[in-house]
Amino acid sequence: MLDTQLTSSLSYKLFRADQVRENEKTAAANSNCDMFTLMQRAGDAVFKQCLELIPNSDVYLVLVGQGNNAGDGYIAAMNAKLAGKQVDLCAIEPERILEGDAGIAQKRWLDSGGEIKHFSTELLDRADVVIDGLLGTGINSYIRNEFADVIDAINSSSTPVVSVDVPSGLDANTGQSLGRCVQADITVTFVGIKPGLVTGAGKQSCGKLVYADLGIGNAFQSLAKPSATMLNIDHFKGMGPRDVHSHKGTYGRLLCIGGNRGTAGAIRLAGEAALRSGAGMVRVYTHESSIIQVSAGRPELMVSDSHLEDALQWASCVVIGPGLGLDAWSESTFATTLKHCQATNKPIVIDADALNLLCKQSTAFTLSQSILTPHAGEAARLLGVSVDDVESDRFNYARQCSQRYHSVCVLKGAGTLIDNEKKTWVCRHGNPGMATAGSGDVLSGILGALLAQGVETDIAAKYGVVLHAKAGDDIAQQHGQRGMIASDFFDAVRSLINHNQ
């Protein structure tokens, strides 16, 4: 979840931590602000979030390291003390005198009568809220044991945590945990939103993400180019009204391919999702043993187990992969489909087992209008790396996948990424309830339907991902996350695609 104190487009842009460090001083000067004033604003923003998280909190535990994050922590501690709170401030090296602006903040804390203590679990146990200012965005190697021990204690406690700029131990650019990482309830990030905070494990570690531009956002944006952009449903105008004189052929002919023996449900979900997303006609090519299961109860789907070449000629675009399998039937079907789409420059969505077949034959096909929809495991196989590699640097591997296959890559997961070789977008919607069988098949059907209706590949990928994720959020809001199933998405997506005009 992302809250923002800024309504401009800057709240949707992502900037690497080094971009913030390199440009914030100039941005502050251009905004008639010095760096210590910026630190004061950061500390103020952190304390404000503590009050909102635990309104009646009396005991604050502020944990600081040695960098500017520590300075922000000292300012937040001063605010809490002035507000009448009991404040325990602990440093990893309590005797160390800090330099620069952080040193000024430290001195003000000491001059006000504040103490700097050694960390103890007793102090943690009695706290109502913890301010985590241990480590900032500058770390890029595994953290030292003295920090790791404190982070372990924080994560073992039930005390709410507000992290300063980034949860300590998290790589702000990649979202990778550097050995240990604070699991925050709120993270207040400053000047620019860092990419590692909005996808994968980093999104989990941040909790609720709050963005504060500290009054220099516009000046900073004029100096730095964003590394990625966040998307939500409000960024899309929708499909618009249909022409009165249109007919079913106007809205495309989508062919969905998959559903091997025992996996008919996957391609059925994709096909029905495509119908509910506005595709004019949907045909399913499936294994002979799956015909009854795919067609039962959904007569609008045209289902066949033969004449694949004819079906491909009929189609204006293709979805392949849900329930496809990895046997001889799958391999033959896959090869025929990709050869046709390559020869005719036909848009195609490649998902699930088709991705596993693609990585075995990646040099055989060049598809200029394709969308790949891997989860981390499939992306790892496509790129010949480990799942841990992918999850440790999702932005990097989404870009590698799109470049290697010259496709739009949709890297699924918390904070799904969309990459088109040149730009990266992050979906702000989505929730853990969507981790359910068939959810990805529904996404493929949505993407195929958008392509069938003439939406350009890049826009179809972005809009389709956002529609799918926002539908998941709407379902969770109405019914809760647990128990969400893939077919729940049909009505939610239909509603969104019609009301988001």
TrEMBL record:
Gene3D superfamilies per UniProt: 3.40.1190.20, YjeF N-terminal domain (3.40.50.10260)
GO molecular function, one term: NAD(P)HX epimerase activity
Reaction it catalyzes: (6S)-NADHX + ADP = AMP + phosphate + NADH + H(+); (6R)-NADHX = (6S)-NADHX; (6R)-NADPHX = (6S)-NADPHX; (6S)-NADPHX + ADP = AMP + phosphate + NADPH + H(+)
InterPro entries noted in UniProt: Carbohydrate_kinase_pred_CS (IPR017953), CARKD (IPR000631), Nnr (IPR030677), Ribokinase-like (IPR029056), YjeF_N_dom (IPR004443), YjeF_N_dom_sf (IPR036652)
Keywords: ATP-binding, Isomerase, Lyase, Metal-binding, Multifunctional enzyme, NAD, NADP, Nucleotide-binding, Potassium
Statement: the UniProt record of this protein carries the keyword Transferase: no
Residues reported to bind (6S)-NADPHX: G136, T137, G138, I139, N140, S141, Y142, D165, A266, G323, H375, D441
Cofactor annotation remark: Binds 1 potassium ion per subunit.
GO biological process terms on file: metabolite repair; nicotinamide nucleotide metabolic process
Amino-acid positions noted as binding AMP in the UniProt annotation, renumbered to this chain: K412, G413, A414, G415, T416, G440
YjeF C-terminal domain span: 231-500
SUPFAM superfamilies for this protein: Ribokinase-like (SSF53613), YjeF N-terminal domain-like (SSF64153)
Cofactor: Mg(2+); K(+)
Family: Belongs to the NnrE/AIBP family.
Described function: Catalyzes the epimerization of the S- and R-forms of NAD(P)HX, a damaged form of NAD(P)H that is a result of enzymatic or heat-dependent hydration. This is a prerequisite for the S-specific NAD(P)H-hydrate dehydratase to allow the repair of both epimers of NAD(P)HX. Catalyzes the dehydration of the S-form of NAD(P)HX at the expense of ADP, which is converted to AMP. Together with NAD(P)HX epimerase, which catalyzes the epimerization of the S- and R-forms, the enzyme allows the repair of both epimers of NAD(P)HX, a damaged form of NAD(P)H that is a result of enzymatic or heat-dependent hydration.
Subunit structure: Homotetramer.
Protein name: Bifunctional NAD(P)H-hydrate repair enzyme
Organism encoding this protein: Alteromonas hispanica
